[in-house]
Amino acid sequence: MEVGLLVFGLSTLLTLVCFMPPLAGRLKLPYSVLLAIVGCLLGVGVHVHGWAPPVLADMLDSIERFEISSETFLTVFLPVLLFETALSMNVRRLMDDIGPILMMAIVAVLVCTVVVGYTLNALSPYGLVVCLLLGAIVATTDPAAVVSIFRDLGAPKRLTTLVEGESLFNDAASIALYSVLLGVITGQSKLSVGNVFADFFVHFIGGGLAGYAMGRLACVLFAWLRGFPAAEITLTLTLAYLTFYVSEHYLGVSGVVGTVIAGLVVGSTGRTRMAPTTFEYLTSAWAQFGFWANSLIFLFAAMLIPRIMEQATGADLWLILVLFAATLVARAIVVFGMLPLLKLTRLRTRVSRAYKTVMLWGGLRGAVSLALALAVTERSDVPEAARQFVAVATTGFVLLTLFVNGISLRPLMRLLRLNELSQMERTIRNQAVVVALEDLQDKTDDVASADHIGPEVRERIRTVFDASLQQVRDAEVSSMSLDARVSVGLAILARREEEMFFDVLKGQIVDWRLAESLLARSERLEDAVRAGGLGGFENGIAADVRYSKGFRIALRMHYLFGFQRWLASELGQRFAALMCKRTVAQRLIAFAGQQIKPLLGEETAEVLVRAHQRRLDAIENALQALNLQYPSYALWLQESYLGRVARQLERMRYREMLGQSLISGEVYADLVQKLEARWGHIDRHPPLDIEMSATELVKRVPLFEKLSADSLRAICKLLKPRLALPDQLVLGHGRNVDEMCFVASGAVTVHLPDHTTVELGSGEFFGELALLGEQVMMPEVTSLGYSKLLMMSARDFRALLARDPSLREGIEVVARQRMRAIEVWRQFSSTGTTTPAAAPTPAAAPGPAPAPSPPQS
């Protein structure tokens, strides 16, 4: 086929496609149904176009010459359709309903294959394997028509997620079964349950791992392409095709699952790795790619329908009706029989009866089923009768689902009232109308005054406002309970918080790692609110300031091996995250007072403000502990935050000046270049210093104050650093002390047996009696804040003395003096006399003084 004629034909089809969406809206038809009708008409018209004028005849001739194979359907169009759907899905919402989604995507495919296979085998002359193959082909669903109806009717978001999630994964299950059964028909393998499950497991799990790996690799590469949106978007397009092809042809796993998982990874993680504005462009670009692919694949598939169906016989039509009934029965078994069983597992997801009914009737089939049937007709090693039966039955079945289920789905949803808002949503809507119209009335009057519009026109416009307000006056927000209003308000604030964090990312105020963490935390908080209302929010507050798993692992590595760099990085991330959360929490409190109050009422706003104030207090406390411990780093973080805001504001101002033609593109580029150079220093993180100086601390211990420099250095080498968190137990009550501890910075509290406490600050120490061989019971010691401690074990100290006679001699002199002081203290303690000021405590001895005083209550 000539290249010019190919381009001419594609241009013709895309021009035709442009007018399909508005025409489908006018005719109240699903978009896929209209595409199928037009495709069938084109399939008939291309064979009888001798009557047409030259230009139209050439158009039809170019379309007729398209040779669309099954490989074209599956390799050219399918990766784009899968990736576009996966990219637009919310991964957390998908995981919320992963139980029913996998049930419909995997179990439903197996049930459909078995029911259809055995039913048709009993009623037709074709063998069991051929009938099972047909069942696997028609098991795959196409959500395009269903989702378009959902969007038109305003169906619940969860229902859309269930249908789209099912279609994402059931293609893989269908194609895996299709491959096994086709191999049995062609004599390449034998039919067995083990073969089917083994092949499916390898295809499905292997495809998921491959897609995850390639998706993560693409997210790493986005960092190299930051600032080049066209390149970043192109990378996502190549990722869809490369994942599909590499998985299928090199790894031998499911390219469908690989492409889906890669799209989910980019949709959830990639948005934080790309340039700030790229993800918005990416969504629009992929919506365009998906529109082209979905429209063309349906047109090309529908154009084959007349050629295939002209071979149909009366018996075939009867079997098509049986096939239609069998698939409905199989789907009903899963939807109404197996989905409720999820309540017995950990996946305790409930699906309402109305949702189940729509899921049953909304299992439309489309281009993927036609492509798989077409692939069978292209196999010369499949018997001709089987090829014709599979092609005719699949084509007729797809047409039935489109024209019966597709057209009747809209009335069914209206009958089930799934297109209606709930009572709570209607109340919120009415209140929103009241708030908006009252505000707009005043603004409209201001415009009328400024533009000198006459009072008669003003009165007509005001009449429109008054009529609208009158319709909703009766539905006051007070008809909702306070708990319901609080839950709605918390959900609004949670969504607003996620938007704020994404704005922070777009403004380049934080790096992608921190942005990824903040967005994940905000989504978890939203989940907690949706699940438990105010109680869930309270639990989310605790999780919001809790130490991350990475921080705990880094702290453990620090304790065991002395690794400090990882811990310093985690502390820095926690520091920056708390600062961002504090800023967002303050803005949410203001937002609740300004926007939620008129919408949900003053009482609701007060509850929301108090709840978020408690959250802000928890963040402030956690941040204060870090600020006191690392004042220099806290100062830099504030400078960095403010500098990033200033940089973004300056960039926006230059962009505004460019849009107003105040500066040229060349001047704008030069200004941005100088801006980046001027603010570059705020992106260079200073290290968070958690190194601990030991020499000065050791000198302050009376036991070591007269030692030589060499001996002090030898002792310092025995000290092991440890970071204690606020309220963390440093030493437990009741165990024998076998180590001495120095407080490098911060403070600890010693809880004495007489219920008194003593606070030991920077430069003080406790447990030195263990180094002298004294077995004393240590009281409980906890950290007041982020405390830097240096620990020395008695065993290491005694080993050092054995190696260094001069050090041992010096220590023994000091030890004898120290022990005499201890004996004096014990004598006074046993008689109940007041402890001399020079005596140390057996439990804790503050270090700066030559002879530490006993603790005071």
Notes on the structure:
With 857 residues, the protein is mainly alpha-helical. Helix content is 70%, strand content 4%. It has 31 helices and eight strands. Strands 1-8-3-6 form a four-stranded antiparallel sheet. A four-stranded antiparallel sheet has the order 2-7-4-5, with no helix packed on it. Strand 4 and strand 5 form a beta hairpin. Helix 3 crosses helix 14 and helix 15 runs antiparallel to helix 16. The longest helix has 36 residues. The protein is globular and about 115 Å long. The C terminus is likely disordered.
How would you briefly describe this protein structure?
With 857 residues, this protein is mostly helical. Helix content is 70%, strand content 4%.
Topology, pairings included?
Layout: H1 3-18, H2 20-27, H3 31-45, H4 54-64, H5 70-87, H6 91-96, H7 98-123, H8 128-138, H9 144-153, H10 157-185, H11 193-222, H12 229-249, H13 255-273, H14 278-309, H15 314-338, H16 353-361, H17 367-377, H18 384-415, H19 423-450, H20 455-472, H21 482-506, H22 512-544, H23 549-561, H24 565-600, H25 602-629, H26 631-659, H27 665-678, H28 695-699, H29 709-716, E1 720-724, E2 729-731, E3 739-745, E4 747-751, E5 757-761, E6 765-766, E7 780-783, E8 787-793, H30 794-803, H31 805-831
Antiparallel strand pairs: 1-8, 2-7, 3-6, 3-8, 4-5, 4-7
Helix pairs in contact: 1-4, 3-14, 5-12, 5-13, 5-14, 5-17, 7-8, 7-10, 7-15, 8-10, 8-18, 9-18, 10-11, 10-13, 11-12, 11-13, 12-13, 12-14, 15-16, 15-18, 17-18, 19-20, 21-22, 21-24, 21-25, 22-25, 23-24, 24-25, 24-26, 25-26, 26-27, 30-31
